[in-house]
Amino acid sequence: MFVELIATVFAGIACAGIAMLLNRITGRRLPKWIMPVVAGLGMIGMTISNEYTWFDRTAERLPEDVEIAMTVDEQSWLRPWTQIWPYTKRFVAVDTGTARMNESLPDQRLADLYFFGRWSPVNKAPMLFDCKDARSALLIDGAEFADDGAVANADWQRMPDGDPILKLVCET
Predict the structure, then answer these.
(1) β strands within 103-138, DSSP E
(2) I need a labelling partner for 21 at 20 to 30 A (CA). Which of 38, 48, 123, 131 fits?
(3) Is the backbone of residue 152 left (phi > 0), alpha (psi -120 to 50) or beta?
(4) What order of strands is seen across the sheet that includes strand 105-117?
């Protein structure tokens, strides 16, 4: 976040410098307000660019075994251009490299999910999936496992048909 702020400030300074150079080239014929307006437009442009490239930059840095399962695009009337070109504000990634399966319960998988948000910290949550019955249970509050490996106190939630997270976990 701090790096993006610095980049935005430098984009404004660079655009103001270009406006100042154009003013000198034209023999100082441009109006005096042109430099701050161009600097402001440069900073707004840099901010918009950061919003649209955040997802790609973040996804590029994910480890090899972490796969993106779902994205959430954002549209806002406060940013009218997002009505035409929405940008990715949040996404969920699954750590397929550490997903586990119990041999006595072959239809169940345990995987770590990572929740990424544009202006929020990354959250990690272990989740148990029942591939046969299309349901899941979050294991945040400490799960108790029975002798056969089944989770004793799971709060199972039905998952919609074709859920991308369930599909990704169950296919690995």
Answers:
(1) 105-117, 120-130, 135-138
(2) 48
(3) alpha
(4) 66-74, 87-102, 105-117, 120-130, 135-138, 157-158
How far, in Å, CA of 121 to CA of 102, rounded? 31
pLDDT in tens, 120-158: 999 999 999 999 999 999 887 767 777 777 787 778 899
Q: Which long-range contacts (CB under 8 A, 24 or more apart) does 138-144 make?
A: 139/110
Residue 29's Cβ-count burial label (10 Å; 0-12, 13-18, 19+) is exposed
What predicted TM-score, i.e. pTM, was given to this entire model? 0.85
Residue 164 predicted with pLDDT over 90: yes
Q: What percent of the chain has pLDDT over 70?
A: 99
Report the candidate in 136, 13, 8, 12 with the shortest Cα–Cα distance to residue 69.
Answer: 136
Mean pLDDT of the chain: 92
Cβ pair 123, 136 in contact under 8 A: no
In the predicted structure, residue 78 carries a pLDDT above the cut 80: yes
DSSP letter string, 61-74: TS-TTEEEEEEEEE
Quick one: tokens of 91?
């996404």
